[in-house]
Amino acid sequence: MSTLTRAPVLKPFTLALIQLGNIGANKAANLKHAREMIQKAVTNHGSNKKPDLVVLPECFNSPYGVTHFPEYAERIGYTPGKPFSPDSSESESVKMLSAAAKENQTWLIGGSIPEKDPQDDKLYNTCTVYNPQGDLVVMHRKVHLFDIDIPGKITFKESETLTGGTTLNSFDTEFARIGLGICYDIRFPELAMIAARRGCQVLVYPGAFNLTTGPLHWELLQRGRGKVLAEASEKEEIVYADIDPKTLEETRRGIPVTTQRRFDVYGDVSKM
Q1: At 259, phi and psi to the nearest 5?
Q2: pLDDT tens-digit map of 110-168
Q3: What is the pLDDT of residues 1-26, one digit of tens each?
Q4: How many CA atoms are closer than 13 Å to the CA of 155, on its beta-carbon side?
Q5: Which residue in 34, 46, 167, 262 is deepest, having the highest Cβ count within 10 Å?
Q6: pTM of the full predicted structure?
Q7: Beta strands per DSSP E along 75-153
Q8: What residues are paired with 170 via a beta bridge?
Q9: Of all helices (H) and strands (E), which one includes residue 194?
């Protein structure tokens, strides 16, 4: 995460969350469908105001599984702080996402895709973000890898093929500072605590939870950070939420933990 400036003033904005279905083995078809759904999210909102931010789910361009990650991984080539043109990237997913953000003139969080580092060929689960001009503004590699072994139920180890990211990331829009995580990252409160201490007013965690560990914990973990405003069914769907800054302001005034923390007793995790 780069050196922080003053966070933008939180303003009202509309969020569109895309829950994708029909993700199959054909990457080109997956990308085409995702682009169509981005367009649908922008044009079918049902009001004169289009969404300010559109979000895709985790691993939207391929089937989700450790055997699939190496096959579908793409080299992005983005380095923070250095000039980067999405059109020159090797990644077909990046090119599509950049074009979709630009043609719809919206901020776009591109869920995540399997990424192959061009320097050492390590694989990551990576989220990319685009402004309304189609510029790639930040990239987040999933920090915590989902390795579980529940006897008789599920065994899944992302670390068999993926490497965990090593940076915490956020980006500024004209309406909010937004912190990023991916799926399993939500279970580790340190990321959210640090993001909040660094001025983030919104946290976005694209996810693809399984049906064994997901149903109980996914909603609970989100409710631990706020009221549920919109919720999709298990089918393909687009949900919208109007974000009102008054809710954040009133909550922080009513429960002033941001000013009552005792860093004389315990350390500030964002500075460790």
Answers
A1: -110, -5
A2: 999 999 999 999 999 999 999 999 999 999 999 999 988 888 888 889 999 999 999 99
A3: 445 688 999 999 999 999 999 899 99
A4: 4
A5: 34
A6: 0.94
A7: 107-109, 113-116, 123-130, 136-141, 147-150
A8: 179
A9: helix 189-197
